[in-house]
């Protein structure tokens, strides 16, 4: 695993609420005076996938969990949180993810102190974070949320090791032995890897509580005439947030085990983390009935946000499938459709709604040219 094997710490009282800057990894919300105040922002590095999962949980909270008194509140208003609401959504999302990883019975949070517990040597190279960690274990969600609220600056300080601390917390909550079993370690799977925006194994850990590299439903037994069939444990239950994946024309990556099954494609709420050619984002819709009512899927609005600060809205139209095709066949329609099909983002959406006609509202941002 591409995590520090020398991870050690002590169980003691919380360290003082400040620490020196270690590296530029952080969770950060945007000011309400800026565009997309609900959105996290991060540079393009291996933390973007992790933060996209957090972003999906935050969007779910604003749209579905924070029930407004007036059900007619438009989406634009739901996604205009105050700074206090941004902080609340962040530490609540972080707590909920860890609690789910711990099977709703425990969670472990890693925070750094001042003193090093592991000396620098030829077998351990200090990174100024790992060797200073303290672990805090919780058996009640309320206690975890109070703790995360109090020590949220550890994760949001810029510069700071916020995402690294959260990754350590997730791994420790799951447990090293469980992690190895999840990853099917004898077959060479790793939690981290040479992925520019992060590994899908980290995404499945944060979304489902298990760091499985297999995205299919349930358990599949794989073998041949020369080997006994062995189980591959995929997604065991349906979660609140889904996952859509399009890995381009790379046939080696498009194996059956790497294609999300229905438990990921059809979550409890219409919010999905998306991985399009290795680039992460969040797709969402504000109608809870979208995944419950067939008629709601005929034509609906879909929104896309990335932690690069990119936003795009579109209309997804599935009516042509029921009406024998709604295209009039003219050259303009054919040209427009051909252009859209060549867009990786549309191909990703087609993994859920095959043959849907997608109309973007406005020009495609340059950052979406994968």
Helix/strand class: alpha+beta
The backbone outline, from C-alpha atoms, is globular
Biggest β-sheet, characterized? 6 strands, mixed
State the strand order across the main sheet: 7-8-9-10-11-12
Indicate the mean pLDDT: 82
Percent range of helical residues: 25-40%
Please provide the ordered H/E string of secondary-structure elements. EHHHEEHHEHHHEEEHEEEEHHHE
Cα-to-Cα separation, first versus last residue: 28 Å
Tally of individual helices? 12
Which oligomerization state do the chains in this entry correspond to?
single chain
Radius of gyration: 22 Å
Task: Estimate the strand proportion.
Answer: 15-25%
Q: How many distinct domains? A: 1
Task: Return residue spans where pLDDT drops below 50 for at least 5 consecutive residues.
Answer: 5-27, 325-329
What's the β-strand tally? 12
Pfam families: MINDY-3_4_CD
GO molecular function, one term: cysteine-type deubiquitinase activity
EC number: 3.4.19.12
Enzyme class: hydrolase
